[in-house]
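Sequence, please.
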């Protein structure tokens, strides 16, 4: 993986480093209870956003993964993030993570972003496997990962403790050789 944070362009989007100048855009989706419903966290208070952005940088610098801001080319604003985290260098595997502003849902944005992200993971990070864990009722997220070629592999019962309860997660995976 590069030493300088990369930029990945698609037709409508730029996947790029999130900076402190993007804090207002990031706060807009991280503070939305509906967006955060399946993210595993309570909505973020404003003061937590700078540390979150710093954590994205640390993950890249420490080679634990990468978290891109999803910039809309038309507006220049960050409308979400997507990344490959929990990077296991030995097994060449990482986990997809992503979040998107509510007003950008159902427009193919995340499908476009994740398609580019997965290609980046296979080509630049030399991953063999990309996986995602999704809460059972998060139908939109199931559709997105299936559109980008991940296959449903099973259910991890009670694998996530969020909002005071244990929740089941569906695990999806895609291998470099699945193409």
């Amino acid at each position: 993986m590069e030493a300088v944070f990369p930029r990945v362009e698609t037709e409508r989007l730029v996947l790029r480093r999130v900076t402190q100048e993007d804090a207002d855009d990031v706060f807009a989706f991280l503070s939305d209870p509906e967006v955060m419903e399946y993210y595993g966290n309570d909505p973020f208070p404003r003061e937590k956003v700078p540390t979150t952005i710093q954590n994205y940088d640390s993950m890249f610098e420490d080679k634990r993964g990468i978290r891109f801001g999803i910039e809309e080319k038309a507006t220049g604003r960050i409308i979400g993030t997507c990344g490959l985290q929990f990077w296991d260098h030995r097994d060449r595997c990482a986990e997809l993570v992503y979040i998107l502003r509510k007003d950008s849902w159902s427009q193919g944005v995340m499908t476009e972003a994740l398609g580019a992200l997965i290609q980046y993971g296979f080509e630049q990070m030399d991953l063999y496997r990309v996986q995602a864990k999704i809460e059972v009722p998060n139908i939109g997220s199931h559709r997105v990962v299936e559109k980008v070629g991940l296959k449903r592999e099973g259910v991890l019962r009670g694998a996530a403790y969020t909002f005071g309860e244990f929740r089941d997660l569906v695990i999806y995976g895609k291998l470099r050789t699945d193409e």
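Helices lie at 23-30, 33-36, 49-61, 109-124, 139-147.
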